[in-house]
Amino acid sequence: MADTAASAAPTGHAGSRDLQHHFDSLEQQRDASSLGMWVFLVTEILFFGGLFLAYTVYRSRYPVAFAEASRHLDITLGTFNTAVLIISSLTMALAVYSAALGRRKAIILFLLATMALGGTFLGVKAVEYTHKFHDHLVPGAGFRFPGPDARPAEIFFSLYFTMTGLHAAHMIIGIGLLTVLVLQARKGRYGPGYYTPVEVSGLYWHFVDIVWIFLFPLLYLIGRHLH
Amino acid sequence: MSQHVVPPRVYFAVFAALIVLTATTTAVSFLDLGPWNTVVALGIAFLKATLVVLFFMHVKYSPRLTQIVIAGGLFWLAILLALTLSDFMTRGWLPILR
């Protein structure tokens, strides 16, 4: 495989294949793209922040019911999925690193690994959701919960499905983004001069990982010390 | 400088720290620490998030402008949380308006 590293010349002069005319240099172009992605991610922080706020309000109101309801989540699968997402963030970071060095095969391999890990996460999530349906823990007419705290427990599971569902939707979008990256990388589009799509998609992927880093303790771990 | 290429050993070190912290937060959740359970869980989550942001997302090496935008976003999140919770958490403090 011919590396694209040889052909790319990140000089920053007008006329470079990778440089848009309205930027002074490749570095300025790259910084502008990262900044743009971060502005989007700030809106995402506030979007998920609102959900975490709703969680905090209801958990402070029904602390015992939330702890009891949390014990109905599968801590083994939750911990496993947390590890899967952390590994996927590592492979994503290595994909960006490979792109910066113009190693085409490595970019594709690390992107495919990241997608496989993302798919694993979603598969485990599907298994968990199936269990919740079997156990009548899905909010609605069929919801059943032992004890006096059925109503607030239903609120916990409403938040659980909303937050993990929106998180999973972000994962699916992320896998879609990575699919495009793999196709472009196969054409040798990315090298030291230009790998912005890999870089900003990496930012998105890591952000989704961070959302899970907060979801995991707040949903799965709050009732483990009881009984 | 965004041109900065982070060596892989940094990524592996951060990855190892994230895995250790995940194991720690799971193990600690089985201990009864009273209100400290939540403090420890959130503290570890913030630490993990900070590691991801600084190293995986290269913010440690990003231009100052990017860092300020992120700090601004987090400040806005703090406003969202603080103003709303200052309402919900103080309801019932005064006997009026019950």
Summarize the structure in words:
The complex is a heterodimer of chains A (227) and B (98). With 227 residues, chain A is mostly helical. Chain A has helices at 26-61, 63-70, 75-101, 104-134, 150-186, 196-220. Chain B is mostly helical and 98 residues long. In chain B, 68% of the residues lie in helices and 0% in strands. In chain B, helix 1 (8-28) runs antiparallel to helix 2 (36-56). The relative contact order of chain B is 0.10. Classes of the chains: A mainly alpha (227), B mainly alpha (98). Chains A and B meet through helix 1, helix 3 and helix 6 of A and helix 1, helix 2 and helix 3 of B.
Any key phrases for this structure?
heterodimer; A: 227 residues; mainly alpha; Four Helix Bundle (Hemerythrin (Met), subunit A); 6 helices; 0% strand; elongated; disordered N terminus; B: 98 residues; 68% helix
Secondary-structure blueprint of this entry?
The complex is a heterodimer of chains A (227) and B (98).
Chain A lengths: L25 H36 L1 H8 L4 H27 L2 H31 L15 H37 L9 H25 L7
Helix pairs in contact in A: 1-2, 1-5, 1-6, 2-5, 3-4, 3-6, 4-5, 5-6
Chain B lengths: L7 H21 L7 H21 L7 H25 L10
Helix pairs in contact in B: 1-2
- Uncertain segments of chain A are 1-14
- Largest interface chains and counts: A-B, 49 and 50 residues
Round the mean pLDDT of chain B to the nearest integer and report it.
Answer: 92
Q: What structural class do you assign from the helix and strand content of chain B?
A: mainly alpha
CATH class of chain A: Mainly Alpha
Number of domains of chain A: 1
SSE order of chain A, one letter for each helix or strand: HHHHHH
- How many separate helices of chain A? 6
What percent of the residues of chain A sit in helical stretches (DSSP H or I)? over 70%
Terminal residue distance of chain A = 60 Å
Q: How many strands, which pairing sense, and closed or not: the largest β-sheet of chain B?
A: none
How would you sum up the global shape of chain A? elongated
Share of β-strand residues of chain B: under 5%
CATH third-level topology of chain A: Four Helix Bundle (Hemerythrin (Met), subunit A)
- In the predicted model, the low-confidence regions of chain B spanning at least 5 consecutive residues are none
Number of distinct beta strands of chain B: 0
- According to DSSP, the number of beta strands of chain A is 0
Task: State the distance separating the first and last CA atoms of chain B.
Answer: 56 Å
